[in-house]
Amino acid sequence: MVGSRLPLIISIALNIFLAGAIAGGVVWFEARRSAPRASLQALGNQLPAPERDAFYKTLREARHQARQTILDGQQARRDAAALLRQPTLDAPALLAALERARVADSAMRAALEQRIVEFAATSSPADRAILAEGLSRYIHAPPPPKKSVQ
Description:
By secondary structure, this protein is an all-alpha fold. It is built from five helices and no strands. It has helices at 2-34, 49-65, 67-85, 91-121, 125-140.
């Protein structure tokens, strides 16, 4: 009798585990989807559709124009990763690679901010208020969780 119930008990346990995993995945996905996005692009999320499309187009154009800067930053990060993998750390070279990445990131951010300012200069006061609200959310977005180093 006990032997015939074992498959049933295992099946029920697995189904409960599967249902919990699915429910947990849905909760995790919804939390990630509704979490505030901390990016300059997110500033325009609440703009009316035509203005939002124009805002995104402005940012895409800025990224396209700064493509080489983006590639330089990516290469600098690859160089830094390669240096970290070496058996002997070349600290000055690593610092130089990280500096190149930081300079590229700063230049890209400055280019995006300049384009946002240009967009805002041609926007209505209502649209600028929406951008200001987005900027406030950007400022107050929670920082990413810190990874413990042990």
